[in-house]
């Protein structure tokens, strides 16, 4: 039986908090990639990196054994990064307070134009001591929402920390 959970707005505040969900200028930073091997096809805009791949773009970091970067040949902007490894890892600072989203899985697909992160196979995502594990996790970075799915036997597993109570204003005293 396929377990599917669409968490949406209910857990957004618990998992994400009240801050912005990604640093606004990450995608305007240069994409720096290191690997054992690299190839690039200017006609298709695809680059392939193999072996001990490390990517950095602003606060975004990706580690993998294999990475395919797709670029729109007309605009020369990055469309997607597809990483695989045992596991592939993705992290990004999500606010100016230093909070970081950490994810890992057998495959990670990052669609930059949609601010969408897909984690496939042994997926894990955590932020601010909240975490989720599932075979498939779809994380919408800008919205701070996600859905998770367990494709084999088992279930989606989440750990959510209680939120600190918000300070209420002190009651006024009558004079």
Write a structural description.
The chain is globular. A hairpin with a 4-residue loop joins strand 9 (130-140) and strand 10 (145-150). The protein has one helix at residues 8-16; strands spanning 3-6, 32-34, 37-41, 46-57, 60-71, 78-93, 100-111, 116-127, 130-140, 145-150, 157-159. With 175 residues, the chain is mainly β. Strands 1, 2, 3, 4, 5, 6, 7, 8, 9, 10 and 11 form an eleven-stranded antiparallel β-sheet that branches.
Shape: globular
Rg over CA atoms: 19 Å
Helix content: under 10%
- Termini separation comes to 65 Å
One letter per element, helices H and strands E, the order comes to EHEEEEEEEEEE
Determine the strand fraction and express it as a percent band. Answer: over 45%
Largest sheet: 11 strands, antiparallel
Give the overall average pLDDT. 80
Number of helices: 1
How many beta-strand segments? 11
Please state the structural category. Answer: mainly beta
Low-confidence residue ranges: 1-21
